[in-house]
Amino acid sequence: MGESIISIKELSKSFGDHEVLRKIDIDIDQGEIICIVGSSGSGKSTFLRCINKLEHQTSGRILYHGKEIRDVQREINEYRAKVGMVFQSFNLFNNMTVLQNCMICTRKVLHISKEEAFDRAITHLKEVGMAPFIHAKPSQLSGGQKQRVAIARSLCMNPEVLLFDEPTSALDPEMVGEVLNVMKNLATTGLTMIIVTHEMAFARDVSTRTIFMDRGYVAEDAPPSELFTRPKNPRTREFLSRYLAG
Amino acid sequence: MRYGLLATADPQTSIEWMIYLTKKYYRMFLDGTKLTLYIAVLGTLIGFVLGYVIGIIQDAKTGQGDNLLKKGCVRILKIIAAAYVEVFRDTPMIVQAMIIYYGIRQLGVDMMPVFAGILVTVLNTGAYMAETVRGGIGSIDIGQREGAWAMGMSPMKTMLYIVLPQAFKNIIPEMANTFLTNLKMTSVLNVIAVQELFMAAKTVGGNYYKYFESYLVIAVIYFVLCFLFNKLFNFLEKRLKGKTDYALAVEYMDNQ
Ligand SMILES: Nc1ncnc2c1ncn2[C@@H]1O[C@H](COP(=O)(O)OP(=O)(O)OP(=O)(O)O)[C@@H](O)[C@H]1O
Ligand SMILES: [Mg+2]
User: Fold this and answer.
1) φ and ψ at residue A16, rounded to 5 degrees
2) Atom of ligand 1 at shortest distance to CA of A42?
3) CA B17 to each of CA B11, B33, B223, B224: distance values in angstroms, whole numbers, following the listed order
4) How many domains does chain B have?
């Protein structure tokens, strides 16, 4: 096995007295599709936000290709350009068209030429089936379309890792499928993905590794074939049975 | 014998006096109008810039990861900004004008009244705009900023490319309002001998002891100016709203 892209070492995060993440240790290797499941409030979002440095950990380290990401804005920016994030609420730029949304960061962060930024935008918008909508504003799109644009926007940066925080939770049921399909296709491209989701079927079918988070701990970390059929931790079992029942 | 409304040789009624004074002193009224506009436009524009700077400072946040020097600097800047905004919002502009004009003269600097007038307008506008800008920034959901940060855009560029353009659009009505307020508030600058419209009316009125008529003349001028600017701003605002539909890029349709 090669060197990990991201190594999380004893990562802890508290909000005041509230310990949300407790000494998390995880290595993420090239090409892994990691799904994180767990009940509400277990710290899944906080964990992803810490990986992207949107939250500052209380203690612990994050290594990217073996090098620690320090709290220097410039280093954080460079790291984030390689480790993108897709949000539950899309977070598109409302004042810009779909095309501008996909070009602004490649232009202003990576400083690539207009032509190249355009080509990248079109390539990735085609990939998610949103190329015909380049002139639309986010407010003119459905939730599923917005999320596909958000994914394309992140792909334009040519990231090594993409983090997804419940990308389909804000969507109407009939739009969940179109976004999950896009993600399934992405999973076949070799992109490393970490996905927080409540879509158990998706986690079971697509992930190469499933993590169950419970009260700030990584309670179980196993291939989906094991975690979903023979969970070792009683709390995983309890969580899954609640899902299967519901 | 009277010559109707255009009688100028021997004015009797107030209307006739207004016409008489306007004709006789049109240069003074014209110069006053020009100066009023000059101070209002320049003072407002520079004041807007100041307001944006102060508003951005007030919105600045330091993270847990920032070093002590940065935290200290931001803290001090924020205190200065907050004090400035409070002082200028909680004192009348007429008093600020006196203090700034005479204060600086007492320091031995010979300052033109017009310059002092612009300075007071700038400082006043900056204090009010700072609050407006802060509100405008606050009205842009934090998610859009996080979306930009998460792709490696620096907080500075995010402010510049994502937040400010939207905040700007949201506060255009408030900016228009501020300009109209300033246009009227320049009248207080007569206390430091700025030859703006109010000063013109005061002088003209004094010549014939016709204050009522003289002030009515400038009331009409202020009204017309504000009315026209208001219409102009409404027009621009509508133009800025832009299209509500979009064209499908058919050249990429076959890929669906
Ligand atoms: N900015 C914050 N300040 C204080 N507490 C916070 C903050 N963000 C999250 N928390 C708390 O941290 C805990 C974990 O939140 P988090 O959003 O990470 O959970 P989650 O697993 O993503 O839940 P969900 O499935 O509902 O999204 C919660 O108890 C939440 O109240
Ligand atoms: Mg969450």
Assistant:
1) 65, -125
2) 21
3) 5, 20, 19, 20
4) 1
CATH of the domain at B163: 1.10.3720.10
> Would B14 be classed as within a structural domain?
no
**With an 8 Å Cβ cutoff, is B139 touching chain A?**
no
The three-state secondary structure class of A157 is coil
B16, part of any domain:
no
Residue B63 at interface with chain A, using a CB cutoff of 8 Å:
yes
**Quick check: is B221 in a domain?**
no
Range of the domain at B154: 27-197+239-254
The 10s digit of each residue's pLDDT in A178-218 is 999 999 999 999 999 999 999 999 999 999 999 999 999 99
Residue B85 belongs to a domain: yes
Residues of B in contact with A108 (CB under 8 A): 153, 157, 161
Q: Rounded mean pLDDT of B92-115?
A: 90
